[in-house]
Queue: 2 jobs
Job 1
Amino acid sequence: MKRLSFLLGAAAAIALSTAANAAEKPRWALVIHGGAGIIERKDMDAATEAAYRKAMDAAVARGSAVLAKGGTSLDAIEAVITGMEDDPLFNAGRGAVFTADGRNELDAAIMDGSNLKAGAVAGVTRTRHPILLARAVMDKSPHVMMIGQGAETFGQTQGLEQVPPSFFFTQRRWDQLEKELTKRGDPIPAKPAGAVAEAADAPKPDDHRFGTVGVVALDAKGNIAAGTSTGGTTGKRWNRVGDSPIIGAGNYAANDSCAVSGTGTGEYFIRLTVAREICALVQYKGMKLQAAADEVIQKRLTALGGDGGIIAIAPDGQMAWSFNTSGMYRAMAADGVAPVISIFKDER
Ligand code: ASP
């Protein structure tokens, strides 16, 4: 009896909050990031800024098109992230940062808030779209996480496109690696076989690792999901894996709380289980999404000495971002609302 009245209470509460939000809840919404870090106006030339804004605009358009047609939040994430993985501006897929031995080791994760299914891959070197591999792990295997060669072998059985490792090469990421290794006093490895430098007018190197990409989305059925894809951090060694493919750290989604994708120094995000922590504050403390995001990023992550940011969405249409760096490439869009695209801290 007690349990029944509890259930009735919960149902009534849901009905009330749905009614309260009915007026403002968008039919669909999405938030995208393209990495956080020391991104400052004084260091960015007009052409580079324009290139990033254009890329974020295109990312929003891809995701919005899927959601406006009634597509799922997972499909929107795929559409946005596959494009960003192919774009050398971002540290994901082509344009990923290099390990200390001159390789690209890619990590990705995706999570479905409607059923808590999740898929993640780490340390892949030949799969063109790690986010599709993460999705295949979720949809087509009994597992949540696969790494390295095994993950790639699984991807081949699923017909996912394989490319030579040099496909991911960009000169600007190589220049960043050389800078980082020189600073450390470590040797510079040989370039990957077949590496081709891009055109000389490509955007200049920026900080050593920006450009992890992530998407959180709400679809017309009311389901939320999160996806993240990255090359990790420049000069990483020993098969280091960051937070991006760790469910609950850099990526998380649950319809009863929120969906989060993070970017920043992964070690801190893992230790704080940043993504799940934000959702726990929403779920158990009833906090608003923005307040929960700020609590974890501005207070807890900062107190631990970590840097980075997150994007988040809730099933009732709340959208949030929070970062403690000077910038984060970011965008939000929703049904009937003009998209917002921002880079620097002093923007919205
Ligand atoms: N979080 C990523 C990692 O630590 C890197 C980033 O977001 O910049 O692997």
Job 2
Amino acid sequence: MNVMLGSLRFRLTCLGLWVTALSIFFVDILTELDIAVAVLYVLVIMIAMGTCSPRGLLRVAVMCGAMTVIGFFASHLDHPLGTALARCLISLTAIGIATWLALKNRRISDELKEQLSLLAHTHDVEAKLHRAQIELAHISRNTTMGELAASIAHEVNQPLAAITSSAEAANRWLDRPVPDLAEARCAIGRAASNARRASEVVSRIRDLTRKSDSHYDDLDLESVVTDSLALLDREIQSHQVQLLCKVDGLSPRVSGDRIQLQQVVINLIMNSLQAMLGRNDLPRELHVRIHAKESLAVVEVRDNGPGIDQTHLALLFDAFFTTKEDGMGIGLSICRSIIELHGGRIWADSQPDGGATFSFSLPASTTDTQRWT
Ligand code: ADP
């Protein structure tokens, strides 16, 4: 429909163009007016400007020029010089100038159209970019949610396992021919404290993702480590691991969140226990050392498991990196988040004779730093 309308408009314009040109031509040759009638050919140029291509416009201009010259010779053949020639030249100049302006106008409008389409394209690209940004934000939110869910599942696993084994132990004490109520109460107490711990862990992970530091206290690092070891007492025993814990000098104090720092120690020790599982050829040993180095408080967890492949060292703390069949690869990534949130650093080394050492350092409280220097 649009194409048909466009072609009809083009034909009508061409018709108008010819009618105007021929009218001017006949007025020019048939009348004896003392004016440059041929200047009116400028009208023809202006009509052509709207529809013709630059080449078509040039053709129309040449045609107008030719009609001006023909008209001049047809009416003034007997005396071609004088004012008539001047009028003819004025008309030709007017046609030339009008053509030049029309062509220039056409070029500018073409350039404008091009820029407009470029602008529309840029706008389109911007819209696409905006859509891509929204999608990216959605993906990263999903990733964060995925990491959060994995972190909660990972961290709550250990207290849940402890609750189950305490509840089973309580059952066994009660099922005895003579129920041992004291032991059963003790086991139920352990289950309750692990349940409390699980809920604290969840709320600390939530704080971790919000980068909140509202639970920071002045802590004795040794007590953080011994509390964690107490929580893992049964696991250490069931894995038949010999624990050697030592503090070099005075125990450093740090500012931090007790539950979060315990999570770090528990994760490192659980990893060591799992790493030593396949080690049946020699006694399984777990060394935990606390010491101060310059203004830092350092905790080292060393095992005599298989150690770490050199190519894995740089990847260990990345979320979802795991070499275990049933691993989640989230424990060390949580450890790093917690330690970095406390302004510290965590790293791993592999021993030449096998075994791995995981260490973390935290800024020591000023009072203790002064005490050591
Ligand atoms: P996961 O335990 O679920 O695999 P982690 O983030 O806790 O996730 O550990 C990532 C990886 O780091 C483990 O899969 C293992 O390859 C390596 N790793 C961690 N601790 C030790 C260790 N004590 N000895 C050897 N490798 C370890």
